[in-house]
Amino acid sequence: MFYREAGQFKTSYAADSAILPIRQDRIFIIALLLFAFVAVPGLASDYLLSGILIPFLVLSLAALGLNLLTGYAGQLSLGSAAFMAVGAYATYNFMLRVPGMPLLLALVLGGLSAALVGILFGLPSLRIKGFYLAVATLAAQFLVEWVFTKFPWFSNDSSSGVISSPVLSVFGMTLDTPAEKYLLTLAIVAQMALAAKNMVRSSLGRAWMAIRDMDVAAEVIGIRMLRTKLLAFAISSFYCGVAGALYAFVFLGTVDAQAFDLNRSFQILFMIIIGGVGSILGAFLGAAFIVLLPVLLNLAGQLLHGAVSSQFMSNLEMMIFGALIIFFLAVEPLGLARLWQISKEKLRLWPFPH
């Protein structure tokens, strides 16, 4: 009774094709954004903002980029962390070597640099796919990590290879507090998530899904494979590049190649598997699960007052990750996003069965 479409008539094509055609969904999203932008910065502690919410938002953005490539375009990639590293180092060097470079412009240029690298490693997708394409993108992970480690120019000749991020400033305002950094991250992620939602509903998104479902049939009906696949790699890498820059500048405060290793790529892949492949919401649900699960396990370990060793809790975390991945692949391949969609469909009928 609380989630019904009765009385919500659509009298135009624009209303029928709206992103949120149901009034309750619009109210929920507006309330959620107001809470995130207004209430959270004033109520949340510094630890909650810096240690949980900011990494959640940044990893959601990276998972969103991978979901555009893998979930919608059907191109498997294991190099997401490499594109994040390209975005982080490119943003740092733009701000370092171009005096007065605004932060937002540097983020865009860092994302474009990651997009160029993504196009380069996306070229094999024109001839190979599946497992072989995953190996090709895995080569990008190793190559990018090696380049940033062996060539000190990228890290401004730092002896340790770890460099501190510059002072964050947007429109003349210095961002020092966790609340200010959180608001910057939230604003960027919200805008890019909206852009991604519109993108997958456009002709480009439909072309991606046609290639994902059957690439031969997509080519027969006139979809340009070269342009469409490379656009998928470019846009996905752009999202990962911006996420990498935010992860280094806003969350870590340093730019380090080891922060974008192979484990990070697998972590992002697990996010879209658990959250839901081919779903914008799935990127956020998967990132929330990956970020919150270690925190909840640590709290459970503290409640047990040492009855369980920390090593067991760490192993338990990996066991839960593996078990959930197997569960979602076998039982619900579309992940948490599909479970949320099923719940909404049941709410539309509750309390009546028909």
Description:
- There is one protein chain.
- Helix content is 71%, strand content 2%.
- The protein is globular, with a radius of gyration of 21 Å.
- Helix 4 (80-97) packs across helix 10 (225-252) and helix 11 packs across helix 12.
- The protein is mostly helical and 354 residues long.
- Strand 2 and strand 3 (173-174) form a beta hairpin.
- It has helices at 13-16, 23-43, 46-72, 80-97, 103-122, 131-150, 178-200, 203-213, 215-220, 225-252, 262-275, 280-303, 310-330, 335-349, and strands at 163-164, 169-170, 173-174, 254-255.
- It contains 14 helices and four strands.
Which regions are unreliable across 5 or more consecutive residues at pLDDT < 50? Answer: none
Distance, first to last CA: 13 Å
Total count of helical runs of at least 4 residues? 14
- What does the largest sheet look like? 2 strands, antiparallel
**Strand order of the main beta sheet, please?**
1-4
Strand content: under 5%
Structural class: mainly alpha
**Helix content bin:** over 70%
What's the overall geometry?
globular
Overall pLDDT confidence: 86
Order of H and E elements? HHHHHHEEEHHHHEHHHH
